Structure formats: structure tokens, C-alpha cells
UniProtKB/TrEMBL annotation:
This protein's GO CC annotations: cytoplasm
Catalytic reaction list: L-proline + NAD(+) = (S)-1-pyrroline-5-carboxylate + NADH + 2 H(+); L-proline + NADP(+) = (S)-1-pyrroline-5-carboxylate + NADPH + 2 H(+)
Keyword NADP in annotation: yes
Protein name from the UniProt record: Pyrroline-5-carboxylate reductase
Keywords from the named record: Amino-acid biosynthesis, Cytoplasm, NADP, Oxidoreductase, Proline biosynthesis
GO biological process: L-proline biosynthetic process
Pathway note: Amino-acid biosynthesis; L-proline biosynthesis; L-proline from L-glutamate 5-semialdehyde: step 1/1
Boundaries of every Pyrroline-5-carboxylate reductase dimerisation domain copy: 164-268
Organism: Actinokineospora spheciospongiae
Compartment list: Cytoplasm
E.C. designation(s): 1.5.1.2
Length: 275
């Protein structure tokens, strides 16, 4: 039986997310000769190669070697990269964008006609193979391209398909979502210290509570309201805490915060509308 050749993957921009994807692909069974990356810092590139055994290359060489081109640079760095990619992206390449806020139309406008582009919004739990990634097809991407990206991102977490019109909302919810949880945990640890519990103990208490609560949400299938009500006894401690949260408008503030993140994602894309 002839072995099916897997596509070579190039990651353009080996920051934390780019490195996490490369590491995840290695642990998922990819060999180092199926991977390549670009990195502007020569020192960081050398360190990544030493750590993972994956070769680095310049943009043109990486684009020539690879079948799947994963763009993982910051949004403000996209224009120079697209300038370098445009002359070297040939037929049969799949471009995957991990750039927050940037629409597939930007890539399609700047790259050769017909290049398939898939937009992905991952998040930082990719670093521990627990990412939540939402993917959307551009104008020239078909089901086979989405399937390729699902397989690619599936090695570092869970993947869902969404219409691209929802990607700014996804960015606000799950892309930025881990920061909201970290913020809440930080506040709860501070509360523990205020109540006289040592910081290390407070952190253990809160972090394990967060892990347990997340596991119940992920595995139990119950609605969050049901789970919260199970902890909330009449005239007990929890309902007193919930009353204070509602009195201070925590729910409304969180909704406003997520809307603000959505709006900023839209602004990032709009900044490149005429690029």
C-alpha cells in the first residue's frame, strides 16, 4: 500500500502561538522534515531549532517547501509578510491565518488569485494542547481545506467551524477568553489573602476549584446555571456572594468587556481594508 504523503507545514512567525503549534504537531506524530518556520530574530530561530529540531528558513524558501502556510504574526506585521509572500505563493498552496482580526479578504486581495485561505482564531491554552480554535473558510477554500486545518489544529485542542462573520465575536469570547479567567482567578486569590489565607494556599484553592469547575462543565453536560444553583443553598454563603456580584454589575461589566473586545477585533481588520 502506498503511504499518503502528508503536507509540509510552514509557520511564519514563531512566537508563543507559532511555537506551540510546531510543538503540538511534533507530539502529534509529524517529523521535523515535514515542518519549517520563519523567525525574524536569528537568536530565537536558533533556539527553536535547538529545542525542537525543526529547521528555520527565510520566507521565500519556507513558502516554496511547504504545502500549508500558517501565518502567525502580529496583525501589525502582516503587510510586510504579505509583500514577501505574494511573489512566491504558487498554485496548490493553502494559507492559514492565525492573525486576530484580519479577514480572509485581506489575504485574498494581496496574494495571487484563487489562493485558498482559512481563518483561525486559536487561544493560548494551545501551549498545553487545550486550545479552542474556530475556523472559517475564505472565498476560495473548500471542505477539503477546512478538513486539513481541522486536522492541523486538532493536535493542540478542540476545533469548531463558524461563518467568518462570527470571527470577531469568537476573538472576543474564546480568543481573549483565557485572560478573563486569569483576571478572575487573580482577584479571587487577592480576596483569599485579604481573608488571611497565605498566597500559595489561596492559589492552590482557587486554581484547583477552577480546574474542577471546568471539568464539570466540559464533561457533565449540565447548563452553568444548573451547576451554580447546585452550590447555592437558601440563605447560605454562596447566595450572599452572588448578590454582591449582581449588585456590583459584574455580569453586565463582563458582557460590555466582551463587546469591547469584539469591536477592537473589527478595528484591527478595518485598518487593513485598503491595504
Amino acid at each position: 500500500m502506498t503511504e499518503v504523503k502528508r503536507p509540509v507545514v510552514a509557520v511564519f512567525g514563531a512566537g508563543k502561538i507559532g511555537e506551540a503549534l510546531l510543538s503540538g504537531l511534533l507530539h502529534g506524530g509529524r517529523s521535523t522534515d515535514e515542518l519549517v518556520f520563519t523567525e525574524r530574530s536569528a537568536a530565537r530561530a536558533a533556539q527553536l531549532t535547538a529545542d525542537h529540531g525543526i529547521p528555520s528558513a527565510d520566507v521565500a524558501d519556507a513558502a516554496e517547501r511547504a504545502d500549508v502556510l500558517v501565518v502567525a504574526v502580529k496583525p501589525q506585521d502582516i503587510e510586510p509578510l504579505l509583500d514577501e509572500l505574494a511573489p512566491v505563493v504558487g498554485p496548490g498552496k493553502l494559507v492559514v491565518s492565525l492573525c486576530a482580526g484580519l479577514p480572509t479578504a485581506l489575504f485574498e486581495r494581496r496574494l495571487p488569485e484563487g489562493v485558498p485561505v482559512v481563518r483561525v482564531m486559536p487561544n493560548t491554552p494551545m501551549l498545553v494542547n487545550e486550545a479552542m480554535s474556530a475556523i472559517s473558510a475564505g472565498a476560495h477554500a473548500g471542505p477539503e481545506h477546512l478538513a486539513t486545518v481541522e486536522e492541523l489544529m486538532g493536535v493542540v485542542g478542540k476545533v469548531v467551524r463558524v461563518p467568518e462573520a462570527q470571527q470577531d465575536a469568537v476573538t472576543a469570547l474564546s480568543g481573549s477568553g483565557p485572560a478573563y479567567f486569569f483576571y478572575l482567578v487573580e482577584a479571587m486569590i487577592d480576596a483569599g489573602i485579604l481573608l488571611g489565607i497565605p498566597r500559595a494556599v489561596a492559589q492552590d484553592l482557587i486554581v484547583q476549584s477552577a480546574v474542577g469547575a471546568a471539568t464539570m462543565l466540559a464533561q457533565g453536560g449540565d447548563h452553568p446555571v444548573t451547576l451554580r444553583e447546585a452550590v447555592t443553598s437558601p440563605a447560605g454563603t454562596t447566595i450572599m456572594a452572588i448578590r454582591e456580584l449582581e449588585r456590583h454589575g459584574v455580569r453586565a461589566a463582563l458582557i460590555d468587556a466582551i463587546e469591547a473586545a469584539r469591536d477592537r477585533s473589527r478595528e484591527l481588520g478595518a485598518a487593513h481594508d485598503q491595504g
